[in-house]
Amino acid sequence: MLSALIPKSFRGRLALLFGLLSFLVGVPTYLYLSSVYEEQLIDDQSDGLQALAKAAATVFAENLGERRREIELLSRTPLYRTAPLDSAEFQASLERLKDSYPHYSWLGLADATGTVRAASSGHLLGANVTKRPWFSAGLKGTYSGDLHEALLLSKVLGHAESDQPLRFIDFAVPVYDANQKLRGVLGAHIHWQWAKSVMAVVTPPNANDMGLGIFVVNKDNQIIYPEGVDSRLHLPQAIAEGNVRRGKFTDWGDGEPYLSAAAAMRDPVASTPLGWRVVVRQPKSIVLADVTKLQHLVLSVSVVAALVFLLLAWGIASSISRPLENLTARARRLEEGDEAISFEVAGGSTEVRRLSAALQRMAEKLLDSKHSLEAKVAERTAALQELNQQLESLARTDPLTQVPNRLAANERLTMEFSRFQRSNMAYTVLMMDIDFFKRVNDTHGHPVGDAVLRHVAKVIGQSLRQTDFLARVGGEEFMVLLPMTPLSQALGVAEQIRAAVHASSIPPVGNLSISIGASSVMDGDGNADTLVQRADQRLYHAKEQGRNRVVGDLTSDSPGSTS
Predict the structure, then answer these.
(1) What pTM does this model have?
(2) H/E stretch holding 148
(3) β-bridge pairing 249-251 and 257-264
């Protein structure tokens, strides 16, 4: 029975032998990839996710610890121990600390009765905070609070830029005098946007391609980072219970298993533990992507190898070694990049000529495929470059008014300041704010408010020169940069803009007005932001003096003086 399956010819037997060899090489390799290599890859990836979770937890904890230490060190300075609580130095001290770290939303000093005596930006000054958890806990010792919404601060800070509520982390420390008598409590609110900047430090650049999900979970197993996460996403029971098994996939309820890892975060204050953890996950399909690709490659190579072995066996059995050597040499030339090679050979048996023709067709198809692929790659590269340019433009354009946004404004300001440092070429910045814009929104609604913003942007743009630069840098705030323009000329441009806006009308609001602050670059300016801050101060004076006016650089130190 078995002998009937064995070919009688030498060519057939040699072909069968080569086929069995391909099978004996390919199958064990495929099985190895499907078991041993796959398990090793999963274990290695699991270790990598665990290392990433620990690194993220460490960075988070260290950052929280730094904030705690800053508040503690500030509370122990001579100012806080000895100065009268009504001293203006407390306000300056809090402002300096707030400016040193952008995520401090509020810093305040409350006396022992709970009355806020000093606060950053003057927010909540004079308010009674005795019912706030941070104050009551801060009377007893250093305190760190869990993530929460701050009702009082939300009222004074306004709405967040996103649709997420304002959320903060609290720190508080008691303030004692030289005799260790309690004077009050120093408190700080850190905006939760802090978590995004911290996570950017530890997130791999290719996290999206790797399908990595990094979450911060509180002691109640609620996902608190990232914000706006799908409400249907819940921690698997095993992870919630702290039973994360190395190399095992877990179902997160969205239909795909994930390889997960978790690391506990060290609490910044031991007496008030947060119980936070960092959880990292990666889809099974991405974890095993390399194994799957390698399996397909081995399978394809095995099939192709079997076909090639059959052809070679057929040729060897026909005793055509010399033509085969000739064909082999030509194949090597093709491998080295010689696209003009031909596989046509003179003489030889029918089998050799067939092999020659097959190799020739294969080479032509490979070259056609190569050229086609190169053309597609070039076409898609060009399309990708065009899309990147469009995205670059969108990232620097305000979607509502279609004028440049703050990012574009910052770039232009930096460029102009660098040019000033090189050539001492003066320029002026105009900061503009639509008067009573909140009243427009409250009276007519946000759609009308959006129409007013577009209208004002258009009127300002029509009043500028081609070389001038207009950007929307805030809700109803615009910035105009006038290159190569001293303040004396800039004030004329500003007045022209103010008059044009005031003369224009948009239903149902009617006539509008804007206040403008103007300032020119000075030799003593440390950076581009210094000029913008000075123009903002002039804008503030314009608002104080009754709005609908232009205020330039102060000519003296007396309040309200303009040029």
Answers:
(1) 0.49
(2) strand 148-149
(3) antiparallel
Mean pLDDT in residue range 305-322: 63
Give me the mean pLDDT over the 298-322 stretch: 65
The DSSP symbol for 34 reads: I
Pairing between β-strand 550-551 and β-strand 514-520 as defined by DSSP bridges: parallel
Tokens for 524, please give them.
Answer: 């003593």
In the chain, the amino acid numbered 283 is: P
For residues 212 and 282, the answer to whether their CB atoms sit within 8 Å is: yes
Residue of higher predicted confidence among 510 and 391: 510
Estimate the crossing angle of helix 10-32 against helix 289-317, to 10 degrees. 170
The residue from 476, 477, 495, 544 that is catalytic is 476
CA 437, 441, 442, 448 torsion-angle sign: positive
What tens digit of pLDDT does each residue of 261-276 get? 999 999 998 888 988 9
SS3 state of residue 195: helix
- Tens digits of residue pLDDT in 517-532: 999 999 989 999 999 9
Q: How far is CA 549 from the centre of its chain?
A: 40
371-398 b/e with 16+ CB inside 10 Å = b? eeeeeeeeeeeeeeeeeeeeeeeeebbb
Q: Lowest mean pLDDT: which of 1-5, 165-169, 173-177, 551-555?
A: 1-5
Residue 493's identity, in one-letter code, is: V
Residues 6+ apart with CB under 8 A from 520: 426, 427, 428, 429, 485, 486, 487, 490, 531, 553
At 413, give phi and psi (nearest 5°): -60, -45
Query: Would you give the distance in Å from CA 526 to the centre of its chain?
Result: 29
Could you confirm whether 476 is annotated as catalytic?
yes
- pLDDT > 80? residue 358: no
